[in-house]
Structures are given as C-alpha cells and as structure tokens.
C-alpha cells in the first residue's frame, strides 16, 4: 500500500474517532447536566392540574410537569417562608430554636453551614439570586455571584389609589388591601420584572464556560393577590366554591387553628371571625389569578431556556416554599401543620432522565440539596440532613418513607397515610396531639389521637417521631 493511501486512511480513521469522541461527550453531558435553573414560588399550593385539580389555568407548569418528575407527596419542613427557605438551602432540619419564623436568616441560625449556592459557587458555578430566594435578600451574601431584587414597595400595588394609600407603609401598617385587579402589562409587577431579569441572565450565561445556578424567586401568589386583569378574567367567580373542609371539628385541638393574622393586617379584611362568603370567594379568585400570572412568567423563562438551546444541559427544579390554606379548616395562609400547609408542589426536570413521570414517594425539602449536588457530581457537606432522591429518578424505590415538619411547638411525622402531630414543650413532652389517617380521612376532619383504639398507634408514632426529628431538635 503506498504512503499516500496510508496517510489518507489514517486521517479518515482519526476524524471518525474524533467524531465518535465528540458524540460520546455530548451523550455524557446530556446524562449529567451541569446548569441548574432553580425556581421558587411563594405560597404556591399543589392545587394544579397535574395534581388532579382542573380549574387553575397553568399551561406552562403543566408542560414542565409533562417533561419532569412530579412529586405527589413533597413536604416542606416548616410552613413559613423564611424558615422554610433557610432549611431547604442549607439542607438542615428546623429545631425548637432554629429556623423559626419568616424573619429567619440562615447565616445567623447556622453561620457555619455551607449552603447549596455557596457550595456550588465554591465549585466554579456562577450563582445568581433574582427575586425572593431567601426571605432576607442580604442573607448568605457570600453564596452569590450577584443578587437582584426589584425596586419598590414590597406590596407592589399598581392602581394609583392603592399606591397612594400604601405609600411608605410597613409590613402591617398603612392602607393596604388584600388584592387588586389592574389593567397593566405583566412587567408592571415585580414578577414580570423577575422573569425578564432571568431571561437576560440566561442570554448572558449562554456563552460562559462556567456552569450556572440561576435562582428565580417569584413573589406571587403571596398576599396581596395583585395580578393584571387578564388573569382575573380567566375565571368566573360564580364557579368558585369554598373548600369541602370549611369546618373546624371539635375533636381537633384548638392549638391547631389560628386567627390568620397575615391576612387580617389588610384593611379590607375583618379583624376577627369567619370571612364573609363573598369575600372568601373573591380571595380564592385572586389566588387563582396570581397562579396563572406566575405560570405565564415561568413559561417565558422556560421558553428562553429552550430557544437558547440550554435545555439539554440544564436541570430545572420548581418548588413552592410551603402550602397555603384557602379556607381549608376555615383557615387562610400557612403557619399550621395540616397537610394543606405542609404539602407542596415539587417538579424536577433532568435531561435524559425525566419524561413526565409521577412519584408518590414521601419527600422532604431538605432532600433537595443532596439531590442536586449528586446530579452535578459535587459531594455534599456532612451537615446535610436530607436524603438524595436520585434513586427515585433512576426508577428505584427509596428506603426512606417518612418526613418530619414543624411549626413552633407542633411537630408532625408523616408516614404512609398517617399524619401524627404533637405539641411539645421545651423538654420534648407532648401536651396535645392529633392523628389523621388519609386513607379514610384525606381532609383531616377526624382526629384519632385521643380515641382508645388508637393509643398503641399513637405510642409507636410518638417514639418514631422522636427518633426522626433530628439529633439537635431539643438543643
């Protein structure tokens, strides 16, 4: 064989080998995406089409669910925004004295913890916080390459009278009302601006060598229920009904209920007693409108991710920081340990792994941190108390089948169909209990904890709760 032919053949084989290597590399990258789009939605309850509801219009969330893995039984570890976010982002459980309320700061409660964004930043990620990720935008400052929050009054009214009446008001002062319907463009409100900032960031990140952790924290459907009129127009209030569980059974401890002070601070809400039915339905209408508004903003961001051809290299995870009561148990807002406040929407889309599945595996929010680090090949710190749910993504049955949530003195063990709650003193002694069996009582209207025939079950659950609420719980 002459030298020319040998050279040509060698060159051809070399090019084919190089092509095969690039193809193999592309497949590998699809299996282990490096970027993370981290979407938080404030006060979003799992009242969505892919959870069995059919009355809220959220086509973009439906599409994400059809491409991801939907968790049917995801639970926050504490049903209040600041504490829930600090717990999730550090992967650490709340205790009696840690992660307590909306004012919680991770960098104060656990100053030595390495948060998820901080760990990623230490491993070469560009980390960006837009909108509400931590409750306090200054929290965990070293974790972020950049932080951004829209300017303006936090209630973000757009109707002139509401802006004027609420000018300069604090969290619980001024002429604030619980909702408004404004004839404005989507970008008039904070969440429209947050979506546009996220889109701009994606464009800037497109050609960077470093992987990114882009966190977008949307504000609605948090109170006040402000949304452009076109989203209110999607719903007919005549078709809105109060929940079936609009009752407070005598068998349930009074400690389980509250006066929903978060809602009462608004001037158009009575200071005590049940809400008038018309007002209750108006609020539900406003909540639905806000969910549809947020859905549209998330759709714009996901559309840009696709247009920029970043989809195949980006994990998308969407979560609500806790549930929310829309009249359930005659309650509004969160701050309780009923399932309506603890159960949350959670979707993860992993290129090459997910394609519209659902799982009923019980998952806690502290499980998100170790899952994401495992997916991108970074070792999680020893402070992490959650368990990665990557096995679920791989089609395996998880060993862990329980979750623990708490709010103030109330601590709840979720195991199988049972929801067991104790109100405990500082020394861990219970002073009130409730037990619901979701197999027979999904609305949590029949407290079994004091019934004689359930005492053995209560005793067993009490022991298990203490074994699983965390080694530092009483400290």
From TrEMBL:
<keyword id="KW-0732">Signal</keyword>
<feature type="domain" description="Sulfatase N-terminal">
    <location>
        <begin position="34"/>
        <end position="378"/>
    </location>
</feature>
<comment type="similarity">
    <text>Belongs to the sulfatase family.</text>
</comment>
<dbReference type="InterPro" id="IPR000917">
    <property type="entry name" value="Sulfatase_N"/>
</dbReference>
<protein>
    <submittedName>
        <fullName>Sulfatase</fullName>
    </submittedName>
</protein>
<keyword id="KW-0106">Calcium</keyword>
<dbReference type="InterPro" id="IPR035874">
    <property type="entry name" value="IDS"/>
</dbReference>
<keyword id="KW-0479">Metal-binding</keyword>
<keyword id="KW-0378">Hydrolase</keyword>
<dbReference type="InterPro" id="IPR017850">
    <property type="entry name" value="Alkaline_phosphatase_core_sf"/>
</dbReference>
<dbReference type="Pfam" id="PF00884">
    <property type="entry name" value="Sulfatase"/>
</dbReference>
């Amino acid at each position: 064989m002459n030298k020319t032919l040998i050279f040509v053949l060698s060159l051809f084989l070399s090019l084919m080998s190089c092509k095969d290597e690039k193809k193999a590399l592309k497949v590998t990258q699809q299996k282990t995406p490096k970027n993370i789009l981290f979407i938080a939605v404030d006060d979003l309850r799992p009242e969505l089409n892919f959870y069995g509801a059919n009355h809220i219009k959220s086509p973009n969330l439906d599409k994400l669910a059809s491409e991801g893995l939907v968790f049917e039984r995801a639970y926050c570890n504490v049903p209040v925004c600041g504490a829930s976010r600090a717990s999730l982002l550090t992967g650490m459980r709340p205790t009696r004295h840690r992660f307590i309320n909306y004012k919680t700061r991770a960098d104060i409660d656990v100053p030595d913890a390495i948060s998820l964004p901080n760990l990623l930043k230490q491993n070469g990620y560009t980390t960006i916080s837009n909108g509400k990720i931590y409750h306090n935008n200054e929290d965990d400052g070293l974790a972020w390459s950049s932080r951004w929050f829209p300017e303006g009054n936090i209630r973000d009214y757009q109707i002139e009278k509401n802006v004027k009446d609420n000018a300069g008001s604090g969290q619980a002062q001024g002429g604030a009302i619980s909702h408004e319907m404004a004839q404005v463009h989507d970008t008039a409100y904070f969440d429209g601006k947050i979506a546009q900032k996220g889109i701009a960031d994606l464009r800037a990140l497109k050609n960077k060598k470093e992987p990114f952790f882009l966190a977008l924290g949307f504000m609605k459907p948090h109170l006040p229920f402000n949304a452009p009129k076109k989203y209110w127009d999607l719903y007919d209030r005549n078709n809105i009904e109060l929940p079936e569980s609009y009752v407070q059974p005598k068998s349930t401890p009074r400690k389980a209920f509250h006066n929903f002070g978060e809602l009462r601070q608004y001037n158009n809400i009575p200071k005590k007693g049940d809400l008038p039915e018309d007002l209750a339905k108006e609020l539900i209408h406003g909540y639905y409108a806000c969910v549809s508004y947020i859905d549209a903003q998330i759709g714009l961001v996901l559309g840009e991710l696709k247009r920029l051809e970043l989809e195949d290299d980006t994990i998308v995870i969407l979560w609500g920081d806790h549930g929310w009561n829309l009249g359930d148990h005659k309650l509004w807002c969160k701050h309780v340990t009923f399932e309506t406040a603890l159960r949350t929407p959670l979707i993860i889309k992993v290129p090459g792994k997910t394609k519209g599945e659902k799982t009923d595996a019980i998952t806690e929010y502290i499980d998100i941190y170790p899952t994401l680090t495992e997916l991108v090949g970074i070792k999680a710190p020893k402070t992490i108390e959650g368990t990665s749910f990557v096995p679920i993504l791989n089609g395996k049955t998880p060993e862990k089948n329980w979750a623990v949530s708490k709010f103030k003195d109330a601590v709840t063990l979720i195991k199988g169909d049972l929801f067991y709650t104790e109100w405990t003193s500082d020394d861990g002694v219970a002073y009130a209990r409730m037990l619901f069996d979701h197999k027979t009582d999904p609305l949590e209207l029949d407290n079994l904890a004091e019934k004689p025939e359930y005492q053995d079950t209560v005793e067993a659950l009490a022991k298990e709760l203490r074994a699983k609420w965390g080694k530092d719980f009483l400290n």
